[in-house]
Every structure is written in C-alpha cells, then in structure tokens.
Amino acid sequence: MSAPRVFAQRLPRLRLALDSRQTSGSSLAQYARPRCSGQLTANTPRLAVSAHRSFGLAAQTNNSARWQSLQTSQQPRPFSTSSAMSHGHVDPPKPGEELYVTFITKEGDEHKISVSKGDNLLDIAQAHDLDMEGACGGSCACSTCHVIVTEQDYYDKMPEPDDDENDMLDLAFGLTETSRLGCQVHMTPELNGLKVKLPSMTRNLQSSDFN
C-alpha cells in the first residue's frame, strides 16, 4: 500500500485524537479555573468543592482567632498603687501611753508635745509645724535636722550615734557635745520629758555634695 493512501486512512483517526485532547484540556481548564478564581461551578468535582469550602472555613477561623487575640492584647492592664508616705506624719498617742518632748525654738519659745513610742524628732517637729527642715527626708544624709539635747542625762540615755550620723553632724552649724540628728532620735519611755533646742541656723550640706 502506498504511503499517501495509508496517510489518508489514518487522517480521520488523528483528527479524532486531536479533538479528544482538546476536549480533555478544556475540561481540565474548567476544573482548574474555579480553584484559582475562588468561584464554584456546577462542573466542579465534589472533591474540589469540599477542598474549597474547607480552605475558606480554616481561613475564617484563623482570622477570628487573630481578632480575638488582638482584642485581648488591647484590654487595659490591671495595675496597683501603694499609698504615698507623707513625711512628718505621726499618729496621736493612745490614752495612757503618752510620751512628752519639748522643743525650744531659736526664738526661745517652748513647745511641749505628746507623742507615741517610736516617733522620731524630725517627724514630730514637722507634724507640728516647727522649723526643722530635714532636707534629705530623714535618710541621715544631711544635717538640717540638727538638734541640741539640753540635758546630759537624756543624751546619755540615747543609743550611740553611728558613723553616718557622726559624719553628718560634722557638717552641722553650731555643733555641741550633745548634738544629735532629729531623724535618728526615736522616743522611748526612757526619753519621756526630753528637751531639745533648735539651732539658730542650719547648714544644708548633704552627703551627695561630696561624691
């Protein structure tokens, strides 16, 4: 059989195969397009529909979780506060437990005050508007709460001043043998009846001035 005749016989088969491949490619394209475009059609296979819906549900759930997390992170944080300690505050003594201390001002006026056990002279003076500065806030870092104990017996009943207090007393104006820092003298029953004199001047030098 000659070659032209054989080719003529096979030509219809080639056309049929070509048409079949085009149809198959078109069908695949129909299935593929919805998956890319996000649209579903009646010709989409059930497996593709199920996958599309599962993907959409997962994305929606993920977005919802992220939104809830964002809302939680933006909620105001709880905070706590501690009460501020006001310097110079003393509580009045309980009946029958009063201790007495007398302040002598630079003008010579005497102020006898009833106090509680444990109160220090700086807080007592400031609570009663007496002229005692206490520039360092009672931290034994200055000499502006300098007082002079008027009687040696009461001075001897006090605990010995430590090195920090002695260092600050060296800076005090009008230093005497019975000088103390008011912030370091705490009232006890042994000191009941104590008298202290406020110096005529104070020298506001603090330990930080020498660092």
Automatic annotation (TrEMBL):
GO BP, one annotated term: P450-containing electron transport chain
Cofactor: [2Fe-2S] cluster
Compositionally biased region (Polar residues): 65-85
Domain of life: Eukaryota
Keyword Iron in annotation: yes
Entry GO MF terms: 2 iron, 2 sulfur cluster binding; electron transfer activity; metal ion binding
PROSITE patterns per record: 2FE2S_FER_2, ADX
All copies of domain 2Fe-2S ferredoxin-type, residue ranges: 99-202
Keywords: 2Fe-2S, Iron, Iron-sulfur, Metal-binding
UniProt GO cellular component terms: mitochondrion
Positions of the UniProt region annotated as Disordered: 65-94
SUPFAM superfamilies on file: 2Fe-2S ferredoxin-like (SSF54292)
Family, as annotated: Belongs to the adrenodoxin/putidaredoxin family.
Protein name: 2Fe-2S ferredoxin-type domain-containing protein
